[in-house]
């Protein structure tokens, strides 16, 4: 089976050029001109009509909610949402029920993902039993069973001793440790960023030091243990500074930032609105500026959505009681392309690096992140030229908890292919 994508605009040495892409048996066979002369006619032709074709996007931070929380999302709906957003590989976080904290549970989840997912799913195991306390997971065992990394996302690892032992174990097993950094003794029941906006709204605040102080602890533990330490969803200027300094010291640390922390701040919270409640919270404009500076100087390695679907009921009422988290898979590319690339803060090539090439490289997902002969045909065809409105009605995720609904953006994903098969497509 062969497919020819005609007239694709692809990035080549940071410039967009028009080429054809030939796919054979799920892999990219060739990228170039007049491919039918060399390889003969393809079984199928997709006319890209000068639309942008990107290597499939890679998101290392997604909540699929399956098993156990399937009223919010399932493997099917979450990975359809990923395909709709142009993502072809996602990392699934372990805050599900039961928590994948044994080799047997990981093996089961890996099998379920393979049977039900529309895109490639890399599965996280937890760091500790049931994502809490101090008993470590069998890292060698979960790696053998198919876990690609470990994380307690949703909660921080509270004690240095447990984190250090976890890092030593993960390093020995060759697993990246991805940390949700949050010191519970500094969180104090907050629901949004601590500061003048929270004070004005009368809402309890979450201090930035609950995040940054744990990163400061962890980079030193990472240095001592030799683990690849990855920081999830950095949100403050101090976090960026600590990570920048750690990188300069040669420590093996990487980090991600979410689209919402790049696009919004607590100044956008003008009333008690659960759609703007997530963990970590939207920070100050000064923090947002530091995140963008961190992206530009390479301190921040990648963008990850932290797609966190919840039911309408769980996201209604007051920020004091609503669930933390917003969806992201179906809005990430378009919102970032519109706000950062069209305004020339980033080039398109830099955005694709941050959303595909670098997450694939840094998480050893060596079958993702590049459009090149021999690679799996994982790609998305995107219309960069026509403005559209983000609407809840077009979302394939079960969760409609997005603050970006109603935004007018560019960068509509028209079609997504995984292993050469169309997993999302509009005519
Ligand atoms: N980000 C969130 O606000 N919520 C996430 C958990 C997490 O990423 O920490 C969730 O699972 O809902
Ligand atoms: Zn988290
Ligand atoms: Zn998360």
From TrEMBL:
The catalytic site is made up of: 306
Keywords recorded for this protein, A-Z:
Hydrolase, Metal-binding, Pyrimidine biosynthesis, Zinc
> Which parts of the chain are coiled coil?
none
Q: In which pathway does it act?
A: Pyrimidine metabolism; UMP biosynthesis via de novo pathway; (S)-dihydroorotate from bicarbonate: step 3/3
Give me the residues that bind Zn(2+) 2, please. Answer: 153, 180, 233
Which InterPro entries does the record match to this protein?
DHOase, DHOase/Allantoinase_Hydrolase, DHOase_cat, Dihydroorotase_CS, Metal-dep_hydrolase_composite, Metal_Hydrolase
Record-annotated residues binding Zn(2+) 1?
61, 63, 153, 306
Give the family, as the similarity comment puts it.
Answer: Belongs to the metallo-dependent hydrolases superfamily. DHOase family. Class I DHOase subfamily.
Described purpose of this protein according to its UniProt entry:
Catalyzes the reversible cyclization of carbamoyl aspartate to dihydroorotate.
Q: State what protein this is by name.
A: Dihydroorotase
Question: Whose protein is this, by species?
Answer: Lactiplantibacillus brownii
């Amino acid at each position: 089976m062969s497919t020819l994508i005609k007239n694709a605009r692809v990035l080549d040495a940071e410039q967009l050029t028009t080429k054809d892409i030939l796919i054979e048996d799920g892999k990219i066979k060739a990228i170039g001109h007049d491919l039918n002369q060399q390889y003969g006619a393809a079984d199928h032709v997709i006319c890209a009509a000068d639309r942008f074709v990107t290597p499939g996007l890679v998101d290392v931070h997604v909540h699929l909610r399956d098993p156990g929380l399937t009223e919010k999302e399932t493997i099917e709906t979450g990975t359809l949402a990923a395909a709709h957003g142009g993502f072809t590989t996602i990392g699934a976080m372990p805050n599900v029920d039961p928590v994948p904290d044994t080799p047997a549970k990981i093996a089961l989840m890996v099998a379920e993902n393979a049977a039900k997912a529309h895109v490639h799913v890399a599965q996280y195991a937890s760091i500790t039993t049931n994502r809490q306390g101090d008993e470590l997971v069998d890292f060698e065992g979960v790696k053998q069973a198919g876990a690609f990394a470990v994380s307690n996302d949703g909660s921080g690892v509270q004690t240095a001793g447990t984190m250090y032992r976890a890092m030593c174990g993960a390093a020995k097993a060759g697993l990246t440790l991805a940390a949700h950094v949050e010191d519970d003794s500094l969180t104090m029941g907050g629901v949004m960023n601590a500061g003048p906006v929270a004070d004005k709204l009368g809402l309890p605040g979450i201090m930035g030091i609950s995040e940054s102080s744990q990163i400061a602890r962890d980079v030193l533990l990472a240095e001592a243990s030799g683990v690849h330490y990855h920081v999830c969803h950095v949100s403050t200027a101090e976090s960026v500074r600590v990570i920048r300094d750690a990188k300069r010291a040669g420590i093996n640390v990487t980090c991600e930032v979410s689209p919402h922390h790049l696009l919004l701040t607590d100044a956008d919270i003008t009333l008690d609105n659960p759609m703007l409640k997530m963990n970590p919270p939207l920070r100050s404009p000064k923090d947002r500026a530091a995140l963008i500076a961190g992206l530009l100087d390479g301190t921040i390695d990648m963008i990850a959505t932290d797609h966190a679907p919840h039911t309408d009921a769980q996201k209604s009422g007051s920020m004091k009681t609503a669930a933390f988290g917003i969806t992201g898979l179906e809005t990430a590319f378009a919102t970032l392309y519109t706000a950062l690339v069209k305004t020339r803060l980033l080039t398109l090539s830099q955005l694709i690096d941050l959303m595909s090439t670098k997450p694939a490289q840094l998480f050893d997902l060596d079958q993702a992140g590049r459009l090149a002969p021999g690679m799996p045909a994982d790609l998305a065809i995107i219309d960069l030229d026509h403005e559209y409105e983000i609407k809840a009605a077009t979302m394939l995720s079960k969760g409609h908890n997005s603050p970006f609904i109603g935004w007018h953006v560019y960068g509509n994903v028209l079609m997504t292919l995984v292993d050469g098969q169309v997993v999302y497509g509009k005519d």
